[in-house]
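[job 4471] stage=fold_predict status=RUNNING
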Amino acid sequence: MVCQECGKKPATLHFQKIVNGEKTEIHICESCAREKSEGIPGSSNGFSIHSLLSGLLDFERAGQGAKQETVRCDECGLTYAQFSKIGRFGCSNCYRSFENKLDPLFKRVHGNTVHVGKIPKRSGGIIQTRREIEQLRRELVTRIDSEEFEAAAQLRDRIRELERRAEGL
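[job 4471] inference complete, writing structure tokens
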């Protein structure tokens, strides 16, 4: 899709605005977004991923009140309020300092707090096998708890087969 402003570069930013039930879509490139930043909601000094993250953090801040001011990184001194404004951590310790506030944020942004991502095709065979073994073990426990011993035995045999195959990879 081409930028609606310049008509030259590919559109990398896509906005959807709904006013009084009327939907308007805007598709622009990053350079046009910088030029037109006053027209983009929530971007006072240009669009960046940090301003997007900061907007998500502002959503959380509205419900928290003044309590977040007390959360501070022991190492660099960055407060959670400062982090929510700039959208970046001050140091690696900030992850631990703000840990209890990050899980809800990650859940809202990514839909989960555990990264499962794609598996590389070259080395993915062993990873895929290990994931399948873990899933089968969880199912095995469930079958044993519900006293479905024949199904549990089949799962046990499948797990052993996969473990032998994993050793050979």
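[job 4471] summary: Residues 16 and 22 are 10 Å apart (CA to CA).
[job 4471] exit 0
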